[in-house]
């Protein structure tokens, strides 16, 4: 697995430190980077004539009503439960006001940017123009500098930038500006534990505490055998630089599914911006562990229902997988920023400038344009990847969070794994456990402040943590996983406020159980988004990987378990003429009795014991693990 943190390109870019040379009395600070950028060294001023692709994210309308809108169609007590919006209704409701577009355009023209240089995204959510460094510095009241990554790559960016006060309210953010530490999504899987399984490993060959097969999951969560496959209810799974080796599927089906899935069963591969399935190069490079675990786990639960595997990015461009934005671009044309908006250091540039001329190689560069819409939406989307909240600009995260909200309005359940390093976070393969500096909230491998994850910090996502068996006897129940590399990610966001559906649960936890570490360790205000929302077993999931049997752990195992259960809930609702559940959290928090409460264990990290699993919701295992029979009864009683 390769990550953006290891920059290999020699492309010369740059970084900035706000020290305006002109009088900008009417400008106000808009964004500022906190802390010293990780793995980057400031060198010299950017060349004044160097080119910058400036993208301006326009403020959208009605976002202040987002929680009310989604509560109206997702709260079980609402008369409009399940009355999901159309894509057109979503686009029209949140499109920027014409006044916003005009105000920003006029400001640019008045600042010397000719009208012919300005273009807009498909949904008019973004403004784009190509600028020289000199122009950008003058317009944004900043300075750009060259920064060199420790691996040798260069970039341009700035420590802060300002905007005129009369246009500031119309703009979310401008890029490229402060961003340096753009990350590829990190898989939430701890790797192969203890080597291959014994020869002949299959259903029933090992106790559940050693190998968590579908039989174990059915017993633990009361999951029935599935016999239906409603059209359009295919489960979605997102993959970033993890390539599914389809020849592994028949052997997995033979050894680890009951009823045994036919060997010719294959998922639908949805290629986004060059994404492919495995070939000899990716198999040799082991670039498929995550995909194997996600897809094989889901199939064992939901078959005969099928799976849409979204394979995102070409794997060559160092930014080819972005920070989930190109996935959202492909799902929602109104969000697509092909004609302006994607940050070229956080989001990929297509056609890929790293083209190696080998179109047959699965790692070859993608030569097509950024995909704008056209990818099918799935009723349930499971993603076992994440990033560090402290590594990305707050405006960027808020904008992306609102896109997950829009999918929820359309009836899509989005589930993300919370990560496997407890209250710490995984930065990349070189720094598997990073915390935040206590003084500036910037991530640091030697930090002492808890590092929340992104995008599970977003209140419109269902965040899935992990558990372990207390013993080899499943009747003894579950505890929070304390297995190194598979400790349930959890905590409180520093960027997102407490959502109403979660308020009662979080306040009870803070009042009765919150650790007394203080505000210098975590956000202890009681007013922040807490995660996870729910959990599932996260240890020793069986897979076939490149022809061999392994047991794999992490929240990457947990997320597709819960997503598979939700897919079965939708199957049941569709069978009686009802709509998919959609955004899950209001229903889940309204019915905590449908979950097995986990009260043992913690998610230690950053030099502390982390949070404790306690009665009720907690930032270790959330509400607990699902009971399918109870959830099905609740789901079928809803409109």
Automatic annotation (TrEMBL):
Catalytic site: 290, 294, 556
Pfam name, any one: Pro-kuma_activ
UniProt keywords, alphabetically: Calcium, Glycoprotein, Hydrolase, Metal-binding, Protease, Secreted, Serine protease, Signal, Virulence, Zymogen
Protein name (record): tripeptidyl-peptidase II
Compartments it resides in: Secreted, Extracellular space
Cofactor: how and how many bound: Binds 1 Ca(2+) ion per subunit.
GO cellular component, one term: extracellular region
Listed GO MF terms: metal ion binding; serine-type endopeptidase activity; tripeptidyl-peptidase activity
Record bears the keyword Membrane: no
Cofactor field: Ca(2+)
GO terms of biological process kind: proteolysis
SMART domains named among the record's database cross-references: Pro-kuma_activ
Major enzyme class: hydrolase
Domain Peptidase S53: residue ranges: 211-638
Function: Secreted tripeptidyl-peptidase which degrades proteins at acidic pHs and is involved in virulence.
Span of the signal peptide: 1-18
SUPFAM superfamilies to which the protein is assigned, alphabetical: Protease propeptides/inhibitors, Subtilisin-like
Superkingdom of the organism of origin: Eukaryota
Record-listed Ca(2+) binding positions: 597-598, 616, 618
Reaction catalysis annotation: Release of an N-terminal tripeptide from a polypeptide
Enzyme Commission number(s): 3.4.14.10
Provenance organism: Rhizodiscina lignyota
InterPro entries linked: Peptidase_S8/S53_dom_sf, Peptidase_S8_Ser-AS, S53_propep, Sedolisin_dom, Tripeptidyl-peptidase_I
């Amino acid at each position: 697995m390769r990550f953006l943190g290891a920059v290999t390109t020699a492309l010369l870019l740059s970084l900035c430190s706000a020290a305006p040379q002109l009088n900008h009395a009417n400008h106000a600070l808009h964004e500022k980077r906190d802390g010293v950028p990780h793995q980057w060294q400031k060198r010299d001023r950017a060349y004044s004539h160097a080119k910058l692709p400036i993208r301006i994210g326009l403020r959208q309308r009605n976002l202040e009503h987002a929680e009310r809108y989604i509560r109206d169609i997702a709260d079980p007590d609402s008369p409009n439960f399940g009355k999901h919006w159309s894509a057109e209704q979503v686009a029209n409701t949140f499109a920027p006001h014409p006044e916003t577009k005009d105000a920003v355009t006029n400001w640019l023209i008045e600042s010397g940017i000719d009208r012919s240089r300005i273009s807009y995204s498909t949904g008019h959510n973004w403004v784009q123009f190509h600028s020289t460094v000199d122009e950008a510095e003058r317009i944004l009241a900043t300075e750009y500098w060259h920064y060199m990554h420790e691996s040798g790559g260069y970039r341009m960016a700035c420590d802060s930038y300002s905007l005129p006060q009369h246009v500031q309210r119309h703009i979310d953010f401008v890029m490229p500006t402060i961003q340096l530490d753009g990350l590829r999504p990190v898989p939430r899987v701890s790797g192969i534990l203890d080597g291959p399984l014994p020869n002949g490993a299959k259903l029933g060959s090992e106790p559940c505490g050693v190998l968590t097969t579908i039989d174990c999951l059915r017993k633990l969560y009361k999951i029935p055998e599935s016999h239906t496959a409603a059209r359009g209810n295919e489960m979605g799974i997102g993959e970033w630089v993890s390539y599914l080796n389809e020849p592994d599927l028949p052997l997995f089906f033979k050894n680890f599914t009951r009823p045994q899935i036919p060997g010719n069963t294959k998922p639908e591969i949805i290629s986004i911006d060059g994404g492919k399935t495995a070939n000899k190069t990716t198999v040799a490079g082991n670039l498929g562990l995550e995909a194997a675990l996600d897809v094989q786990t889901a199939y064992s639960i939901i078959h005969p229902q099928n799976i849409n595997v979204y394979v995102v990015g070409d794997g060559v461009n160092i930014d080819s997988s972005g920070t989930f934005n190109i996935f959202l671009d492909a799902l929602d044309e109104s969000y697509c920023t092909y004609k302006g908006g994607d940050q070229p250091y956080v989001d990929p540039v297509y056609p890929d400038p790293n083209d190696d001329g080998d179109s047959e190689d699965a790692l070859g560069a993608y030569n097509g344009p950024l995909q704008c819409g056209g990818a099918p939406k799935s009723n349930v989307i499971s993603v076992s990847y994440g990033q560090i909240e402290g590594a990305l600009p707050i405006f960027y995260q808020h904008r992306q969070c609102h896109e997950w909200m829009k999918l929820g309005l359309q009836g899509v359940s989005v589930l993300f794994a919370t990560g496997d390093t407890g209250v710490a976070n995984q930065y990349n393969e070189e720094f598997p456990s990073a915390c935040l500096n206590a003084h500036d909230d910037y991530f640091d491998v030697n930090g002492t402040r808890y590092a929340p994850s992104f995008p599970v910090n977003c209140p419109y996502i269902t965040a899935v943590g992990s558990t372990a068996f207390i013993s080899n006897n499943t009747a003894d129940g579950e505890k929070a996983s304390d297995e190194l590399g598979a400790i349930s990610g959890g905590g409180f966001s520093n960027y997102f406020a407490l959502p109403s559906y979660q308020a009662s649960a979080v306040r009870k936890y803070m009042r009765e159980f919150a650790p007394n570490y203080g505000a210098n360790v975590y956000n202890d205000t009681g007013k922040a988004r807490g995660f996870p929302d729910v959990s599932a077993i996260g240890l020793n999931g069986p897979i076939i990987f490149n022809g061999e049997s392994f047991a794999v752990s992490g929240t990457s195992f947990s997320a597709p378990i819960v997503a598979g259960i939700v897919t079965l809930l939708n199957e049941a609702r569709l069978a009686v003429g009802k709509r998919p559940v959609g955004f899950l959290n209001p229903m889940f928090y309204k019915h905590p009795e449908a979950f097995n409460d986990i009260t043992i264990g913690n998610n230690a990290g950053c030099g502390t014991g982390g949070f404790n699993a306690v009665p009720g919701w907690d930032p270790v295992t959330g509400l607990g693990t699902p009971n399918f029979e109870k959830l099905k009864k609740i789901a079928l009683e809803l409109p």
